[in-house]
Write a structure and sequence with these properties.
heterodimer; A: Rossmann fold; B: alpha/beta; Rossmann fold; seven-stranded mixed beta sheet; five-stranded mixed beta sheet; 14 strands; about 40% helix
């Protein structure tokens, strides 16, 4: 499948990536001026992954960014001032100085869930967002990002496994930036491709060059459409590189110099600029126009941020509890009657489609197996009556074990052939799945 | 109306709230087809269907995480932890994600986390815990621990309707041991309000959950000896009803705190501090406490009996305090 982009969309992708980078550079200057409070976490080199994935979403869809996904926040409608003021701990920041970095969100309008510093936790949370979206009839997709390091957490596993059993509309972008703080990916995961994780959950996956924004967008769009159609979660591995240390204090001396050089030659913005030129999508004038717009905008955003004071100390004690300050109201896009008795009532009985023996013939149908998870309309509306008592005894007389295929086959990768990557775990010849 | 058990009262609260509001959903392990390890959720699936009664893999972090996501969508999930001991598995989700959400970025988390807690049923070190204080020490959460069927139902309804995350501890020893007639109409019990279960003049016992009943039994015996005990049932541990505690202490001038939780770091220490800060001049004796021993909950009956506080412990400590 191909998802053609218009000229405006192409230019918008450039705008968001370049804004992401310009903001990053601005923050480094502010950090050096001691205006940034606390650590600064660079997005450098990962702009295509954040922007390209988020750009594949509709307005109604939900995201939960991690710390290097400022690009996703910009696509979702947050302003540079929001990120600036978060880092500067100002009163008018989205968290009013109660938290920093990209730790903020907006439930009602932009549908952005704030991350926490503990990695992997957004996977079950966004699964819940997706399940609730299905329940409410919203037809939404939930997207979140994890780094290579976060794939080692229990929350990642529990969340993705639960999402798979629920066939939740979750797009999980594994942003393989080769380093989790100072630890290389090979010390996180004994796999060449992190997308192979998907096999263990029986879900679809693909691998994409995370520094090619068009490829990222195309891959993400395919995943989003697939999720929206009710086919369950998709894991996308985006191969990219963290071009700075973990945070500004970290000179990343543990990264081989040649590795930085390798990835610098594949800088997502320089590559995209070349692509736009070679394909005659823009000219020098339109590039200059966009760059000038970004400069001007960022200058205004910074002026706004600098005018915002630090928060008043008494704010520290406020807002621990919701005491009528927020309304909690679900956005129903289906009739409540459908989920209210008597319409909601079911026969409380499992449909057991797989007896677990060695003989695959004991499986009634793989479709029923997929629906046998307790969630969703598919399970609720699946025909019942195929219970154990009607079925043959499972055979277990020492037959040779045969592996059952997962419910969903992995999607074909968009990268059929890619060059060998000398460091880290980049795509090599066999990265494309057949 | 026939009297109902605490377990049935809890079931009624969930049932009635789901009936009243389609944004209320339940999620947990074995809660649907099986009806829950203690059958608290029996009948829910049949009535409300697969989408509202969600059986999950054995993944406490996923249960709490997914419930958070649902609550961000405006739903009001009730997450069951099969035994409250397993709350340790999702500690991070609760203390870092759930509790800090509203404070950090103004995202309310209207969810209830409930489960069977407490000892006295020979459940051993992993099926008997009282882990309430981990969460009482976590700003952003509310913590409820009822002692009667009436309160369990009314407080659970309040918890479900609350816009904040609420931990709801259900003492499994009380599940089928306490019964009472409940009003037929919809009622709630306010969160954060203690109640005086027994009026008295000589000393105050502040307690909650199963120990509330043990304390009342002790108070009856002490009355025969001429010691008139006032029993305050906290019902909610966070926020703590300091007013009711202080009012009682100022009246009786003596304070004994009784809880089934272990001693060090138990809520008795907090209540003692509240009394010292707010009623020091009114105290006519040391603040004493009767608690479980500082050990894991042991399995074998004689060991568990030794571990748990009992009526005799209350009687002897109360006599000592009354005579001071």
């Amino acid at each position: 499948m191909s998802y053609p982009l218009t000229r405006d969309q192409h230019l918008e992708l450039y705008y968001f990536m370049k804004l992401n980078r310009a903001l990053d550079e601005q923050l480094v200057r502010l950090f050096r001026q001691n205006v940034v409070v606390g650590g600064l976490y660079s997005n450098l080199g990962q702009e295509a992954t954040s922007v390209g994935t988020a750009y594949a979403l509709e307005k109604r869809d939900w995201i939960a960014p991690m710390i290097r996904n400022v690009g996703g926040l910009l696509v979702k409608g947050f302003k540079p001032r929001d990120i600036l003021m978060q880092y500067m701990a100002r009163k008018d920041s989205p968290t009013m100085g109660k938290d920093g970095t990209s730790h903020f969100g907006d439930l009602k309008v932009r549908h952005v869930v704030s991350p926490i510093s503990m990695l992997g936790d957004l996977v079950p949370v966004m699964t819940g967002v997706a399940i609730a979206g299905r329940y409410l009839g919203q037809n939404i997709v939930a997207m979140t990002w994890v780094g290579d390091g976060a794939t080692s957490t229990g929350a990642f596993h529990e969340g993705l496994n639960f999402a798979a059993t629920q066939r939740a509309a979750l797009v999980l972008v594994v942003e393989n930036n080769q380093w989790a703080y100072s630890t290389p990916v090979a010390k996180q995961v004994p796999l060449h491709n992190l997308a192979d994780r998907a096999k263990a959950y029986g879900i679809a996956s693909s691998i994409v060059d995370g520094n090619d924004v068009v490829a990222v967008y195309q891959t993400a769009k395919e995943a989003v459409d697939r999720c929206r159609a009710g086919n369950g979660p998709v894991l996308i591995e985006a191969k990219t590189m963290r071009m700075k240390g973990h945070a500004q204090h970290d000179p990343a001396e543990y990264v081989p110099k040649e590795m930085f050089e390798y990835w610098e030659a594949r800088d997502p913005i320089a590559r995209y600029e070349k692509y736009l030129t070679e394909n005659n999508i823009w000219d020098a004038k339109s590039k200059a126009g966009l760059d000038a717009r970004i400069d001007k905008e960022l200058k205004e955003e910074l002026e706004f941020a600098e005018k915002s004071p630090l928060p008043p100390p008494d704010l520290a004690e406020q807002g621990v509890y919701c005491e009528g300050c927020h309304t909690v109201e679900a956005e129903w896009k289906r009739s409540k009657k459908e989920v209210t008795p008597p319409q909601s009532s079911v026969k409380p009985e499992w449909e057991v489609a797989d007896f677990g023996g060695f003989d695959l013939a004991s499986t009634i149908s793989s479709k029923a197996a997929a629906a046998a998870g307790n969630g969703g309309k598919s399970a609720a509306s699946a025909p019942s009556g195929k219970s154990m008592r009607n079925s043959p005894e499972p055979k277990s007389n020492g037959q040779k074990a045969s592996l059952q295929k997962p419910n969903e086959r992995p999607e074909k990768s968009r990268i059929a052939e890619a060059e060998r990557v000398p460091f880290g775990r980049g795509p090599k010849g066999k990265a494309g799945r057949k | 109306m026939a009297p109902v058990t605490m377990l049935e009262a809890i079931r009624q609260a969930i049932f009635e709230e789901m009936e009243r509001d389609p944004s209320v959903v339940t999620i947990g392990e074995d809660i649907g087809v099986y009806g829950g390890a203690f059958k608290v959720t029996a009948g829910l699936l049949e009535r409300f269907g697969w989408e509202r009664v969600i059986d999950t893999p054995i993944s406490e972090t996923a249960i709490i995480g997914a419930a958070v996501g649902m609550s961000y969508q405006g739903l009001r999930p009730i997450a069951e932890l099969q035994f409250i001991d397993f709350i340790a598995c999702c500690f991070n989700q609760i203390t870092n994600f759930v509790a800090k959400s509203h404070y950090r970025w103004g995202a309310p988390v209207p969810m209830v986390m409930r489960g069977p807690s407490g000892g006295g049923v020979h459940g051993g070190p992993f099926h008997s815990a009282n882990p309430e204080m981990y969460f009482v020490h976590t700003p952003g959460l509310k913590v409820i621990y009822p002692s009667t069927a009436y309160d369990a139902k009314g407080l659970l309804k309040s918890a479900i309707r609350d816009n904040n995350p609420v931990l709801f501890f259900e003492h499994k020893f009380l599940y089928r041991r306490v019964k009472e007639e409940l009003p037929s109409d919809d009622y709630t019990v306010p969160i954060g309000k203690a109640i005086v279960r027994r009026e008295g003049r000589d000393l105050t016992i502040v307690t909650y959950a199963a120990m509330m009943h043990t304390s009342l039994e002790a108070a009856d015996e002490l009355a025969k000896e001429g010691i008139d005990v006032e029993v305050v049932d906290l019902r909610t541990l966070l926020p703590l009803d300091k007013e009711t505690i202080l009012h009682s202490v100022k009246k009786t001038n003596k304070l004994l705190i009784v809880h089934e939780d272990t001693r060090t770091g138990g809520i008795a220490g907090e209540i003692a501090a509240v009394a010292c800060e707010g009623a020091f001049e009114d105290l006519d004796g040391p603040i004493l406490r009767v608690t479980a021993k500082d050990s894991p909950v042991p399995f074998s009956p004689p060991l568990e009996e030794r571990f748990l506080p009992n009526k005799n412990d209350i009687l002897s400590t109360a006599r000592e305090l009354a005579a001071y």
